[in-house]
Amino acid sequence: MKTGLMNTFNIKLHLNKGFSLIELLVVVAIIGIISAVGYPNIMKWYTKKQLRNDAYELFAVLKDAQQDSLLNKQLHRININSEGTIISVEINENPDCNQIINQDSYSTPVEKLTLKNSKLIVSGPQVFSPNGCCSNQDYTKEYKIIHKGDKNNGADYGIYKITTKKATCFMNLEKGN
Fold first, then answer.
1. How do residues 41-50 score in pLDDT, each as one tens digit?
2. Is residue 12 part of a domain?
3. Are 113 and 126 in contact (CB under 8 A)?
4. Count: domains in the chain
5. What's the rounded Cα separation, in Å, for the pair 75 and 97?
6. pTM score > 0.90 for this model?
7. What is the mean pLDDT of residues 75-100?
8. Residue range(s) defining the domain that contains residue 135
9. H or E element: which one contains 125?
């Protein structure tokens, strides 16, 4: 019965070996369109990832200085420029927060941190005391970090904020708008 059906419909088994030129061009065109649409999104994601990594790196350096200050019972003053380079780390046995920072110690950068892809909008000294956190001026010290290529002051790729409270020495890293 099966052979009769096959003969009736005259079905032939035909195998093609390979693809035609038009099929290959269609596939290449589809891949090109998907790549062109996806590339800007992938680059924006990668840039945001670089910004996040720089923010976490700065936060880790500040946390290390804070913990070192508490463990060794020493005052730590860290001055950071807008490029994210730690200009000076001053360690003092006398935990007096109101001492004037020696400007001469800023001339040689300390190779502890340099932000690779980001810059700081707000920079300056951060002081950690073994008996609590202290800052020279403000109740709260805030560092704002944006990507170097962000021309809209954080609107393109986001902004990260590291906040240190003076009284409690609580440090917080958050993503802003």
1. 999 899 899 9
2. no
3. no
4. 1
5. 8
6. no
7. 68
8. 21-176
9. strand 124-129
